[in-house]
Amino acid sequence: MKLLLAEDDAMLGASMEKGLEQAGFKVDWVRTGNHASTALKTQSYDVALLDIGLPQIDGLEILRQIRSQGQHTPVLMVTARDAVRDRIAGLNLGADDYLSKPFDLDELTARIHALARRQAGRGRPNIEFGRLEIKPIEREALLAGKLLPLSPREFDLLLALMEKPGAVLSVEQLEDQLYGWEDEVASNTIEVHLHHLRRKLGEPWIRNVRGVGYKVVEVV
Questions:
Q1: Single pTM value for the model
Q2: For a tag site, which of 28, 87, 154, 183 has the least CB within 10 Å?
Q3: How far is residue 180 CA from its own chain's centroid?
Q4: For residue 90, what is the DSSP state?
């Protein structure tokens, strides 16, 4: 799952980035409102974490801009401001959730997962597709109840495909889900991970749609 983190406090931002990455998220961290606005216009994110007190453009104005442009990226406002009027302003502008500093990292990750589920139209935390089950919070994948020995990249790849079972994702879309903008990605990296993932699944769960991309299909 790919996140935009917009936080100008260097110490807090570094701590959040490290903690979220350890929880399995891919994080693009920016420190100004201008950079956050540009990132949201040019990149695709599962959830955006916006601090209200960003320099240049504050979080509320960024939220107003993206919602007026019809962008539906789930937004969690993270801020030191605890006034009721600030929470009301953010919610009225289209924020999906609100968390005041200081906060517990486990609560933050739980709220992120909840926003992603809501965006995908899922009520349950786990994703099930036939005999395959993904547990995003525990970062586990099971086939017919048996735990699959997946690497972190292989798990992320399977999760990306399972978010919308049957939908075809291009190599570029999969790269966007698995890597941040500072990562260097070799041209065949996704294909290599897919090869190993297919071997571990042991059945033709992942189908190549020639010239388009890949999708997960149910194997009875």
A1: 0.76
A2: 183
A3: 11
A4: H
